[in-house]
Design goal:
mainly beta
Length: 105
C-alpha cells in the first residue's frame, strides 16, 4: 500500500546520478544533514535527497519536507533516533545523510 501525498513529489534529476529529491521549498542556508545535527531537540525536514527507494521509504514513514520531528540521539555518524508522528524510528547514517533539517525553536 502506498500513501499518496499530492503536494509533495519525487523529482528525478536528469543525468547519470539518477537521484531524486523531495522538497517543499528551497532549504534555508542553515539546513544540514540529520546525521550532522547535534543534541536532543526538535527539527524540521526541508528536503530529502537520494534514490527513489530512499524517498519512497521516508514518505511511507511520514518523514517528508515540512515534517517536524524530535531528534532523540545521534551517535557520531552511526544510528540516529527520531520521533515522528508518535513513532520512534532508528535511521542508519546513510539514510540520515539524505535528510536535510533545520532547528525548530
Amino acid at each position: 500500500m502506498t500513501k499518496n501525498h499530492p503536494d509533495i513529489s519525487c523529482h528525478c534529476r536528469r543525468g547519470q546520478d539518477g537521484h531524486c529529491f523531495l522538497r517543499e521549498q528551497p532549504c534555508p542556508v542553515d539546513a544540514r544533514p540529520l546525521s550532522r545535527t547535534c543534541g536532543k531537540h526538535k527539527v524540521k525536514v526541508c528536503k530529502i535527497t537520494g534514490d527513489r527507494k530512499i524517498c519512497a521509504k521516508m514518505a511511507n514513514l511520514g518523514v517528508m519536507p515540512g515534517t517536524e520531528m524530535d531528534l532523540l540521539c545521534r551517535r557520531h555518524g552511526r544510528q540516529c533516533m527520531i520521533k515522528v508522528n508518535g513513532s520512534t524510528l532508528s535511521l542508519d547514517a546513510a539514510t540520515a545523510d539524505n535528510i536535510f533539517v533545520t532547528s525548530v525553536e
